[in-house]
Amino acid sequence: MSARFDIIGTPLAGLVVLQRKPIGDARGFLERLYCADELSALFGGATVQALNRTHTAARGTVRGMHFQHAPHAEDKLITCLRGEVLDVVMDVRRGSPTFLQWHAETLSDANHRSLLVPRGFAHGFQTLTEDCEMLYLHTAAHHPASEAGLDALDPRLKIDWPLLVTERSVRDQSHPPITEAFTGIDS
Length: 187
Description:
Layout: E1 5-9, E2 16-20, E3 23-25, E4 28-30, H1 36-39, E5 50-56, E6 62-68, E7 76-82, E8 84-91, E9 102-108, E10 113-117, E11 121-127, E12 132-138, E13 147-149, H2 170-173
Antiparallel strand pairs: 1-2, 2-10, 3-4, 5-12, 6-11, 6-13, 7-10, 7-12, 8-9, 8-11
């Protein structure tokens, strides 16, 4: 048990929810988004190498499902700073008993939750409100030659997006559907 976070397991081994514990008073609150001392074991000793922020204007937009291949695979800590998203994580680890199973959590500025996405998982989200801002902590630098993704609308993935998908990037639309030949990735 952590002083600043409750760590909540999910059905996918290694994927955890961090319930942040804000400290507040009449002025507002302070909350810790990351603490190496408290979370290093969850990161397997890896350190944060990059910090990214996204803004998505339109409700219903889907970003993802992204991952990086080894040796540039990464752990990610995902936090919603403004708005509300359905954050979806899919196990793409070769040989995993939960291969191609997904888990979703609602992340918002109001619920103070983050997802720790381990390497070997694809990640994406759908905006449930307008003007969503997300914060990502990565344990590996972006390596364009190692980046990959799954088509978030591929019927074989069976992701239950709650809203009509209103927007996706050209890059995300270009990910091919999976076939029987896709046996996962090494992480």
